[in-house]
Amino acid sequence: MKMHRFSGTTSREVLAKVKQALGEDAIIISNRAHNGVLEIMAAAGDELDLQTPAPAPVAVVPLAAVPPTPTCAPAELDELRDEIQRVKLALQRDIAALATANSRRAAGRDALLGTLLNAGFSPQLAKRLAEATNSGHDAAADASAVAERLQQSLMLAESDEIVTRGGVYALVGPTGAGKTTTVAKIAARAVVRFGASKVALLTTDSYRIGAHEQLRIYGRILDVPVHIVRDQSDLSETLAELRGRHLVLIDTIGMSQRDAMVAQHAAMLAGSGDVKRLLLLQATSSARTLEEVVTAYESTGVHGCILTKTDEAAGLAGALDVIVRHALPLHYVTDGQRVPEDMRLPDRADLVREAVEAAVADALSVAPEDFPLLTAAMTSRASTGVAIG
Questions:
Q1: Structural domain span for residue 12
Q2: What is the pLDDT of residues 53-91, one digit of tens each?
Q3: Is there a domain that residue 309 lies in?
Q4: Using CB atoms within 10 A as the burial measure, which of 192, 221, 334, 356 is most buried?
């Protein structure tokens, strides 16, 4: 047992020192008064071995049960006890309030996380959004904050930049992403503003049967020339001939993101002059597939992206997630086959609303009771350095 000595002129002063040094569980061993000074011997509750008898005449008394002595005014001691009790009750209330707030915050975070996951956002982005914007006090306000944060994170290109500024643009992406139709839609916008004589179309797709014929049909409708190029030399010569055109659009062959030709084709375009590449992201593709597509094409340099086939997709969260995380400028959104009607400039609020509202309860959804387990798993992965995505 380790004893501590405290002294003062009043019992309140000495007991306050005991409480501050040893806490409320302190044990009063003895007290005595000498020449107007009160001296108390005390020990911390966890330092006292109550199974070992203390040597007489030591009296072991809990701090809260110290009886008044000739030098301890009863009124002062009662007042001190009342004050300690008030502090204790206040601490209990604060702890209870904090526990309630934490519980409410956790419930609100889980609800936000579930909404984002069920909409199709990646665990990485969903967790970051839920934790950064969740207050737990107002579910509607939290949801609105998430939407606003998403909108701020979504990078948009300058409005109709491609048509307005002009230049040479190659539309790239996997097979079926809608490159040929999108080329025609952009060309139609340019023809309306600058005339057919200022626009030209090219295609590097000589592999698919009838691929260039589809582009020729669009060219005849828009009254703009269509050129077929087969290699870098051919492309360079054709671009030199079309130098006076305001806008030249190149329809490229669709290639899997895992095809080695992605890099070769990018090198051909880069070696033919100032050709900006626009990556088409198909909204119907899974988030993991889109991640592969962006990673493969982004490594060779892209100017921005176009989101296609939104009318066929169950939701936009996966595509927006990839666009946000890779900070790709979004130029256009397409939602049908009509030329040029089914293409629009992107609107942040509309896109985020469409993405978040796609969250539904079905077999692919995360159940509310699984949110805490999922959150714990993601936290564990993050702490161990395992990538989340």
A1: 4-71
A2: 444 444 444 555 554 446 555 666 767 777 777 777 777
A3: yes
A4: 334
Residue pair 285/272 in contact (Cβ under 8 Å)? The answer is no
Q: Are residues 318 and 169 in the same domain?
A: yes
Q: Does 313 reside within a domain?
A: yes
Summarised one tens digit per residue, pLDDT across range 293-341 is: 998 888 778 899 999 999 988 888 889 999 999 999 999 999 988 888 8
Closest CA to 202 of 242, 244, 259: 242
Distances, alpha carbon 134 to alpha carbons 97, 98, 355, 372, in Å: 18, 16, 19, 15
**CATH number of the domain that residue 341 is part of:** 3.40.50.300
List of E strands, the chain = 4-8, 27-34, 37-43, 61-62, 167-172, 199-203, 226-228, 247-251, 275-282, 304-308, 330-334, 343-344
Phi then psi for 111, rounded to 5 degrees? Answer: -65, -45
User: pTM score, two decimals?
Assistant: 0.65
3-state DSSP helix/strand/coil % of the chain, to nearest 5: 50, 15, 35
